[in-house]
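Q: Hand in one record:
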Amino acid sequence: MILLLLAVLVFQSPAPAPFDLIEQATRLACSMSDDACLEQEFALRRSADQGTRKASAADLGCPDGDLSCLAAAWNRVDDDNLARLRAIVDARGWPALEGEAARGAWLIAQHADPSPGGADRAFRDLVLPMVLVEVRFSRLRPEDYARMIDRNALADGARQPFGTNRPCLDGRFDRTSIESVAEVDRRRREIGMDIMLWEALPLLDDMCRRDALTRASPIPAMPDGASAG
């Protein structure tokens, strides 16, 4: 009976706050050459990254609707994560991580600001070839590389080469955001992506239609500069 109560308490205990996860990652004090330790660290940093984006305002210590507080909370996590990844890349290149840790490192880079001319964009451009190497070693997925390329392109006001973002226009996926479906799918095949855009278009159109229907009931916007994916 006692064991059952303990199990219930553990199951019901809240997930660690994103800031606590960052502190846990920092306390590991991993050497930049210790891949086993970095696996633990970047799994924690991944949880912090995603936890921040899924947390309620109250979870982040912010009043409802206080976008300045939310932005500060997101930046607190993202800035710490990015500074750590940048230091490792400067010292040794992209870390050879697996699983959740590899996803964590990629998410940190993907969530760096893609605005042209900034320090974050320079870092994104620097690591893109490294990310492609990780794809070739199957530590990251082809779509991870494609999503970084596409986010940069949209920030530049250009068409997205792989069509991985979902801009909507008149309740449909915005075809003007790409060169053509055929060209996008050619590029997808070249880097080994499994799902072609022509296959995904009906779903993307349906999601855009739903977005258009729910636009009449506004939801709080993400803080400026924040990215959910």
Notes: The longest strand covers residues 168-169. Residues 1-13 have pLDDT under 50 and may be disordered.
